[in-house]
Design a protein that fits this description.
Radius of gyration: 20 Å
Number of helices: 9
Order of helices and strands: EHHHHHHEEEHEEHH
Bound molecules: iron/sulfur cluster
Number of strands: 6
Oligomer: single chain
Largest sheet: 6 strands, mixed
Length: 277
């Protein structure tokens, strides 16, 4: 008789889930298998707000995308986020809220130094794409799909965190190659370039997809999926300490920090500010 798996295996993966599993299988289990609510962090919510302001900007006719318009779009996004569950869960006082908005404005000022939004020929915003590789479904959201002067497709991803060190650059680009793979599978066209725009530092990292990079994405994603399935079957989701521990929503139940994982299912939903995703 075959034992029942310890956890149900997911049937789809996104680039962020692939990275989450490779960074720390236990944190992945808490978030993606157990689906425990998390306490939002300021940086992530600020990033979402800035993404929304840029999306609103790109919805406007290109000749109207002045710096003033970009800031007005942030004002609109701030109003929208007034009732956002994650924003509300931050419970910022007036002073912290003002600082939060200032930081978002500074990120947009940096963005305006990096490119002129009037030159962007966006043809897709916050584009949800899904494609299959074997039994696995891959999903992702492309921040911006645009045309260059020659009609080639460019995938752009805004980043509001720090730019990676050269050692991590290829890993970060792996996520963007994933978007390139989705684009080619769904639209039938391989993007000419993929770009990561780091708004906090003003750096842009760009890569050109190739047969090799597409092959790399499918091979790596299937390898990660096999590892996820194995972990679900055996129940062996190991904690892996690393730089992300400082931002981990589940540190108090992590054995690496003296916690008891079995208590997470009971205690995580009771935390003040916990938001289901
Ligand atoms: S604290 Fe670190 S090691 Fe523990 S679950 Fe979170 S990311 Fe993993």
């Amino acid at each position: 008789m075959v034992d029942a798996p310890a956890y149900p295996a997911p049937t789809s993966l996104s680039p962020s889930r692939v990275e989450a599993f490779t960074s720390c299988p236990l944190s992945f289990r808490f978030a993606s298998i157990d689906k425990l609510p998390e306490v939002p962090n300021v940086a992530a919510v600020r990033g979402s707000l800035v993404h929304r302001a840029l999306e609103l900007t790109m919805c406007e006719p290109s000749d109207q995308r002045t710096p003033e318009l970009v800031h007005r779009c942030l004002d609109r996004a701030i109003i929208e986020y007034g009732t956002d569950p994650e924003m509300c869960a931050l419970a910022l006082d007036d002073e912290s809220t003002a600082a939060f908005h200032d930081q978002a404005r500074r990120l947009l000022d940096r963005y305006l130094q990096m490119e002129d939004p009037r030159q962007v020929r966006a043809i897709g915003l916050e584009l949800r794409l899904e494609a299959s590789t074997g039994a696995l479904s891959l999903r992702g959201i492309i921040d911006r799909l645009e045309l260059d002067d020659d009609g080639g497709l460019i995938v752009t991803d805004y980043k509001t965190g720090r730019a990676p060190s050269p050692n991590f650059e290829q890993r970060r680009l792996g996520g963007v190659h994933f978007y390139s793979f989705l684009c080619e599978s769904v639209l039938g066209v391989r993007p000419k370039a993929i770009r990561l725009m780091y708004l906090s530092s003003g750096e842009t990292i760009e890569a050109r997809p190739t047969d090799r990079s597409v092959q790399f994405v499918t091979t790596r994603t299937n390898a990660v999926f096999n590892a996820v399935e194995r972990a679900c079957r055996t129940g062996d989701f190991r904690a892996r300490k690393g730089p992300l521990c400082d931002y981990c929503s589940f540190q108090q139940w992590c054995p690496e920090f003296g916690g008891e994982p079995a208590l997470a299912a009971v205690e995580a939903p009771l935390r003040p500010g916990a938001v289901a995703r």
